[in-house]
Design a protein that fits this description.
Length: 168
Amino acid sequence: MPAGRLARRSDPHDWNRFDNYLKTHQGYLAHWERIGFLLEDALEWRFEEDWSRITIRGRLHFRGGYSIAVDKVLEVRSIRGRCEVRTKYYAYQALRTTPDEEVRRLFRYDNDHQYTREGHPDEHHKHIVDEAGQEHVIWVGRQNWPTLHKVIDELFTLALQLDGTLWQ
């Protein structure tokens, strides 16, 4: 790189070629499957007839009763015959099903609504559920909202902290 020029960090939420988006998504899931954390990919991909959007809904199931419920909408555009996508709406709900079949909410990232009452400047936020079951909402912002893969990373770290027997 020439002196004086800074490397431009790409925005993971900006327009991306669909084939690259899909390859990246599949690569991350293959990684978690290889190490034994991802047990089942039950996500459904639905394409609008006019290719104006793609909806991804369903659940990723992980070792230890952990899962992530995904509800995501991608905008689609065509530039010089190349299909590009970017996330318009997302909700990633991390859950844990206990041995007695109780489903416990752990955390959720979404941009479904803006918490203006709390002073959030945009709609990107995280819901955290504490051990008493109380929900707390924190702003994460446009610059810090995670991709699905970062949410899986966070769930894996949390699972290791909460469950010392995850790999037994």
